[in-house]
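Entry 0007
Protein: HTH-type transcriptional regulator LmrA
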Amino acid sequence: MARNGEKTHKAIMDAAEELIMAQGYSATAIDQIIARAGITKGTFFYHFPTKVDLAHELAERYARRDTRQLAGKMEAAEQATPDPALQLLLFLEQFIDIAEQWTTPYPGCLFASFCYEAGLFEDRTTEVMRDSMLVWRTRIADKLRAAAARSEPRLPVDADSLADAVTVVFEGAFIVSRTLDDARIVAQQLRHLQNYLRLLFGLEAAAIERAA
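Output (structure tokens):
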């Protein structure tokens, strides 16, 4: 029974995330989630007392997934080269490779969807989103500082601010891609970011191919 309960719990969350990514949180009714998940109203409220509770669990799950992706791709880059600057380029290259395969715009980031309606959520949910973004900032800023220590950048660098710029490019590219209905935009914008970092640390374009 516990296993079936976990399966149902996940089905509700999956259905809710799909709907929210497509139409937003406030526009997603509980009845829509129930219909998409193929459950009864009683089953929904057994697993989630309120829609706000569901939103919190969605944020927690998304944060875990996001952190695993950050760690996995950064570790793969670290295994390929000892050069911190090149590690950053290879980190982005992995996302570029994925984005270049998309034929339709990526749905985007759940946190981006939530932040526009932040007043609808509890503080604990906002904290989950904030902490997740700070994990990205810290990991990338540490790598930028290591890169700057190894090779002086061609321009002054505020590591934390530039680390935030990485997140900004990702999130902004998702929005523009969906707005213009152009799946190519995410990969293109990540390539611009990668080129900026490459020039900042004086690396050749061929260095990425050699290290990959």
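Curator remark: The domain at 51-211 is CATH 1.10.357.10 (Tetracycline Repressor; domain 2). DSSP finds ten helices and no strands in the chain.
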